[in-house]
Amino acid sequence: GAGVSQSPSNKVTEKGKDVELRCDPISGHTALYWYRQSLGQGLEFLIYFQGNSAPDKSGLPSDRFSAERTGGSVSTLTIQRTQQEDSAVYLCASSFGGLAGEVVRETQYFGPGTRLLVL
Amino acid sequence: ILNVEQSPQSLHVQEGDSTNFTCSFPSSNFYALHWYRWETAKSPEALFVMTLNGDEKKKGRISATLNTKEGYSYLYIKGSQPEDSATYLCASILFPGYALNFGKGTSLLVTP
What we know:
By secondary structure, chain A is mainly β. In chain A, 3% of the residues lie in helices and 44% in strands. Chain B is built from no helices and 11 strands.
C-alpha cells in the first residue's frame, strides 16, 4: 500500500514568509509525528497527534510553529515568519497508534521529508 | 548520559568487511530502542524495535543487541555491501510517551 507522503519535497522561501508543509499518513494509522533535522543535528521531535486526543506540542521550538491534523488524517505544519535557523529537513511519520503502552514499541513509518531552505 | 549518542560519526569500509556501530542511551526510564536506516533521498526505514534487556534481533546480514542496564545497543553488519551505504540512526523512548529521541547517526560508506 501507499506509504507516508509529504509535500512539497523542496521549499525555498524568504525570511519572514510563512510556509505550510503537508503530510499524508498511511491509511489507518492514528498516530502522526513531525520531526526535523537541522544541518549537523539529529532528528528532533516537534509534535505528536494520536487519534482525537489533544496533540503533544512539547517539541515545537517556538510559537511560530503550529500544526493541525484534519479528520484524523492529513496534517499540516505551519511555520510563520520563517527564520534562517528554520532551514532543515522536516519529516513526518505515522504509526498504527495502538494501546498507549504499545505505542512506544511501534514502528514509525517515515515520509521522504520536505527540505526547507530559508534565505 | 542525557542524550542518545552514536559512534562512530562516520565509517568507510570495503565491500565484504563486517562492521558495527554503537548507540548509547540513558538507561533510566527506558522504554524502547529503535534502529533506522536512512539512505540519501529516501525515507528513513525501520530496522528494529527492541525493548527487553538482552534482546537480539536479526534482519538478513544486519543484527542488533540491546543492553538496557548499561544503556547501549550495537548494530552489526556482516559482509558489508555497497547498498548498505546509508546513515544508521538509533532512537530511544525515555519517558512514558512516544516521541523518539534520535542520535545524530552513523554514516556508513561501503566501497567496492
